[in-house]
Amino acid sequence: MKVVTDLRPEIEKVFAKHERHFHIDEEISKDVHGDEAGIQKAKDLRAEFYYLKEYIVGDEETIEGDRIEELKEQIHNKLAMGTNTAGEFDWWWNEASGRSEAVLRDVLRALDKASPEKGAWFRYVSYAWKVVRELVYLAIVLGVFSVANSRFETVVIGMLILIYNAIIGARTVEGFSFIHLNAAVRQMYGEIGRSLRLKVSVSPEKKAKQQETELAIDFFIQGISILLGSLIALWKIVNAVFL
Fold first, then answer.
1. Is the separation of the CB atoms in 119 and 19 below 8 Å?
2. By three-state DSSP, how is residue 24 classified?
3. What is the DSSP annotation of 61-128?
4. Burial of 142 (0-12, 13-18, 19+ CB in 10 A)
5. Nearest of 186, 189, 192, 235 to residue 212 by alpha carbon
6. Is residue 106 within 8 Å of residue 118, measured between CB atoms?
């Protein structure tokens, strides 16, 4: 995928797409909302569009590099804000209106599209390594049974494998439970903090959720391996004792 370095032209297209929703005719607005309220509504919408452009584009000639990541975090924060949060004049920490939210989400999509997630290739390599590691574990399980010289040795090896799998499985579940709890606590902290007018960034919540997702994949891979290893051990024990 071609990575765009300067996103200002793309973001300008987003503003051009939404501009008509903010520039309404004052006469029509007066008919809908009344004279004074209608004029004020039209002015408020124009001001809202002005602030959108001012805070996102401003007088910057280009939008690239670190500014892209900064904008993504600021937009995520603003979209996560509830009502009555932060100071009246702290634009990035006030709730986005319906029209502004549509603009912000389109800008965010443009930013995400042009800046592919960092480290994605590393995660794929990590997953592949975990699969290989679990395949090696299964090969070892089969290998130790192949060198057993008696039924007694087969039973002992099988029991040791079952005990090992039980310990590893318990530790994995414990670790996943901790990560899941951490993600839930960070999400609650963010929601409560923003409802109390605190400037709580959504970045820690996103990172905790991503960590939970990655660990869930690890848990699944290891769980399949432990299940297969346990089934092999049980079959060998049953075969040694009863057959």
1. no
2. coil
3. S---THHHHHHHHHHHHHHH--TT-S-TT-GGGS---HHHHHHHHHHHHHHHHHSPPTTHHHHHHHHH
4. exposed
5. 186
6. no
Going from the first residue of the chain to its last (243 residues), give the mean pLDDT of each consecutive group of 10, the final group possibly shorter. Answer: 64 82 61 59 78 81 79 78 55 69 79 63 80 92 89 92 92 85 79 65 78 85 92 92 79
Q: Please list, in sequence order, all residues whose beta carbon lies within 8 angstroms of the beta carbon of residue 3, skipping any fewer than 6 positions away.
A: 114, 115, 116
* Cα–Cα nearest to 6, from 68, 79, 80: 68
Is 142 in contact with 232 (CB distance < 8 Å)? yes
pLDDT of residue 32: 46
CA distances for 166 relative to 135, 170, 243, angstroms: 18, 6, 25
Residue 230, token pair as written in the block? 């346990």
Tell me the CB-side half-sphere exposure of residue 195, using CA atoms within 13 A: 6
Instruction: Measure the CA–CA gap between 232 and 234, rounded to whole angstroms.
Output: 6
Phi and psi torsions of 81, nearest 5°: -70, 145
- C-alpha of 169 from chain center: 26
Q: In the structure, how many helices (H) and strands (E) does the chain have? A: 8, 0
Which own/partner contact pairs does 173-178 have at CB distance under 8 Å and 24+ positions apart? 173/219, 175/215, 176/212, 176/215, 176/216, 176/219
* Residue type at position 152: F
Tell me the CB-side half-sphere exposure of residue 189, using CA atoms within 13 A: 14
Q: Are the C-beta atoms of 67 and 107 separated by less than 8 Å?
A: no
- Asked if residues 200 and 73 have their Cβ atoms less than 8 Å apart, the reply is no
